[in-house]
């Protein structure tokens, strides 16, 4: 059985953003991760801010991609997305650990997440 790691999460997010656009992708990805954490018996692992921030970051780069670009090309152009610590450019780790971040959206406290223009 293969592991569903960070690259696979980014791939799922990329596909979801391309299929549904940013607003709906936030809900779809967040609901999927929340359900998976619950199913695995670890609902406390889910973090709403982390989930949404990753969708927004991926969507920003999807908006800059060619419409027919495949996932490997997308990653070649955006290798930072493979860094699981990427969110620490935008958030302090203490901010992401707060109960408010786990249950709802918390704005970045280090730098704004770049906007995703032209994604539904």
Describe this structure in words.
- This protein is mainly α.
- Helices cover 56% and strands 0% of the residues.
- The protein has one domain (6-103).
- It has helices at residues 6-20, 22-39, 48-64, 71-77, 93-97, 99-103.
The proportion of residues in beta strands is under 5%
Strand element count: 0
Distance between the termini: 35 Å
Low-pLDDT runs: none
The H-and-E topology, N to C, reads as: HHHHHH
Secondary structural class: mainly alpha
Give me the Rg, rounded. Answer: 14 Å
Mean pLDDT: 93
- Share of helix, binned: 55-70%
The figure for the number of domains is: 1
Write the layout of secondary structure elements.
Elements: H1 6-20, H2 22-39, H3 48-64, H4 71-77, H5 93-97, H6 99-103
Helix pairs in contact: 1-2, 1-3, 2-3
What attributes characterize this protein structure?
globular; mainly alpha; 6 helices; 120 residues; single chain; 56% helix
Summarize the structure in short.
The chain has 120 residues and is mostly helical.
